[in-house]
Structures are given as C-alpha cells and as structure tokens.
Known about the structure:
Elements: H1 2-17, E1 51-61, E2 69-79, H2 98-104, E3 130-136, H3 141-154, E4 160-167, H4 174-179, E5 185-189, H5 196-206, E6 211-215, E7 219-221, H6 226-235, E8 239-248, E9 255-256, E10 273-275, H7 280-284, H8 298-308, E11 312-324, H9 337-352, H10 357-363, H11 376-384, H12 390-396, E12 412-415, E13 418-424, E14 427-432, E15 444-446
Parallel strand pairs: 3-4, 3-6, 4-5, 8-11, 12-15
Antiparallel strand pairs: 1-2, 6-10, 7-11, 8-9, 12-13, 13-14
Helix pairs in contact: 8-9
Bound molecules: manganese (II) ion (MN).
Manganese (II) ion binds at residues 216, 218, 323.
Keywords: Disulfide bond, Manganese, Membrane, Signal-anchor, Transmembrane, Transmembrane helix
Cofactor: Mn(2+)
Domain Glycosyltransferase 2-like: 131-292
Amino acid sequence: FNSFLTALLLFLHIQYFGLFYFFQSSPLTMHPAGGQAWTHRSFNPEPSVLKFLIHTQHVYGSILKGCALMFTAVRLQLVRQRSLKAGEDPYRDHAFNLQESDRLGSERAIRDTRHYRCASITFDPDLPSTSIIITFHNEARSTLLRTIKSVLIRSPPYLIQEIILVDDFSSDPEDCQLLSQIPKVRCLRNERREGLIRSRVRGASAASASILTFLDSHCEVNTDWLQPMIQRVKEDHTRVVSPIIDVISLDNFAYLAASADLRGGEGRICNLNTDNPYRYWFNHLGQYDIHMDIWGGENFELSFRVWMCGGSLEILPCSRVGHVFRKRHPYDFPEGNALTYIKNTRRAAEVWMDEYKQYYYAARPSAQGKAFGSIADRVALRRKLNCNSFRWYLENVYPELRIPEQKVTYSLLKQGGLCLESHSTDSLGLAECKSGSSIPASQVIYV
Ligand SMILES: [Mn+2]
C-alpha cells in the first residue's frame, strides 16, 4: 500500500508541476437520436446535448526500477444539459435509469467496500501491465465513460497498458471514434453484430499486454481493484481471477457492497476476468467458444474449462468492481433471446458436462432438440488438453453442490416369501410381498 501511495503522490506532484500539458479538443458531435451527445470542450452552448470535456495530461516520468513509465491523467467531465421529455421512460433504451446515470456524470466517488484489512496488503513492485478489454453495444455514454474513467483514475497508471474498446456494431459509429481520443484508449468497431464472446476474442487478439482483463461496459471499478488480480495471476499464470462484483442500483445508481462470501457457480461471476499473463494460457485454453452468440453461457463454459483443464478460477475479496445488474436485456438478439441463451448453454453442457448434462436438460426441457451448431472443435480441444471429467469437477471443485437425485431404479429385497417394502410413507418392513410381481426378476435381490 505504501509503495502505491508513494507512486500516487509522485504522480500528483508531477501533475501539479505540469511537465507536459496536453489538451485535446474536437468539434461538437451530435448524437443522431438527439438524446445524448458529447464534445470535448465544455463551452459549446448547445443546450440540448450532453457534453463532455476531455482534459488530458501526459506526464512522462522516470521511474520504478529504472523503467520509464508513462503517467497519464485523464479528466473527463460529462455535463448533462438535457432532461428527458415529460413522459419519456428513462428505462426504455438501457433498462436502467438513464436520467439518474447522466445526472451523476462521468466521475463520482464511491465507497471503498473492501474489508478494512485489504488496504494494508502490499503487492510486488514489478507487477506486469494489462490490456483492459471492454466490449459494448449501444451502451449509454454516461455509464461507458464512468467505466473507462474509473479504470483510469483507480488503477496505477503503469498497470494499464491500454484500454481496448470493441464497439459491437452500435448504432452510432462516432462513439468509437470519439472514445479513441482518450489517452490509452483504442476502439475497434465490428462490421456486424457479433455478440460479447466474439467481440472479446477480437479485443484479445488486438491486445499487446500479456495479461488480459475483460470488463463489462456499465461498471465502476473500486479502489485498488487491479493490483490483487494481477498479483495472483503473476504468481501463477494458470489462475483466472475475478473481483467481487458489487451492485450498482439500476434505479438510483447507489453503489452497494456485495457479500464477500461468494463461491464459484453462483451467479455470473465471470463478468470480468483477468486472464492468463502469458498469453499462451488464454490461447492454450481455447480463448472463448466463438460459436456462442451475443451473450450468455460463456461464463459457465469458461469456468468449467479453466478448472477441468488444469487451471483455477478465483474470486478475490480485496478486489471490487461495481456492475449495473439489469432485469432485462435492452438490446436485440438477432436469433431471439431464449434461443441464443439455449444455444450457448447447450454448447457448454454438451462439451463439458458429460453424463451430468441430463440435469441441464431436466432444468431446461425446452432446450431439447434446439440447434446448437457443431461442437466438434470444442470436443477436440477438450481431448487435446486432456481435461478432467465433469465428475472430477463436481468432486474436487464444487463438492458442496447438491446433485439432484439420481434416476430412481426399482429393485426388491426378498427373503423367502417376504419382501422388504414400505408399507406407509414412514415405515419399512418385512412382510408378504405386495409389489413383487411388477419388479423384473433381474432387479430382485435375494437375501
Ligand atoms: Mn452487464
């Protein structure tokens, strides 16, 4: 903590003396829908748009252990100047309260939700840097900016190699161009809708750091979120790590602490992963299943794959990231929401769950018979990596998970002419056989 504080103080010190001062500006850009727009200067008088000010300072310093590090400070200010029209539903476009999100602007203080002892943990001074990959599709500008800005202001600058945005074919291509003007930010735009999974793979292949961090587009990272994750991955490159995901209210954007007692398999823990340091591991494990569409299922698939093929997945209590959980998807699924989810989860079940996939189908009977594409390459990957069975996963990784009752098989215990049978709901006794005739002889056990 001390070394980080020192770095932070050094950073502030340099910033005040302003070795280099670089101000970016660009003309006002209107959003075609007229709803939100942003500009890089705050003095444009356009009344009906959102504006934001990018105010950048690049400060080059010497620094730790003889390495030259670039310190970058970014100040983005989102100024909201338009209120929704009377009767306009603030939840319509994003399934969260846009008015409230815009009102907060691009930066705000959030409560440090970690256990108090987290603040005294120290980290290696030579942690490797990471590429942050954020994919988005028609994300609200205020939430997307808060995501990016929270990363820039709450991470030690030398740990952020770059932020790669993948615009998954949002309606307004200008978002991507404008965001690229933020220091360290690159934005790639898909030519058609690809979904979260293929967009992440695209971002990963463009990344230059050895560690990949995937982040959703409506998050706010909390104090010192990054160091614990990079530390764990640096110590063992087969670890895939996740912070605890705090809850940002979709109604009033209050930042609420999640319980620190998370256990794998509960909920959507893989919203965000810092992945393999040595890129080898991410590629070795087969990245993501790129035949999964849009959203859903990839978190289970990654979790099974990491564990079953020799790695581990950790949720780190001293790393916290807030996420706006929503009750519905605000965007379209070209193939329909339910079908896409079934296709993706069916792929995960078919490739990884062995005989236990019967429980998936029991829980989702509608998945039977639905198309899920070819899984030949994923099955081949599993064989090539010599991965453990799903039974191994259940016994070693998640023994607390209660497996639903096995299929009931009928058999009979018989002694002479007497059978061991239940006579009422709570008593079992040896008596004259009642049901003996209906049990096949092969299942009768004589004692
Ligand atoms: Mn999300």
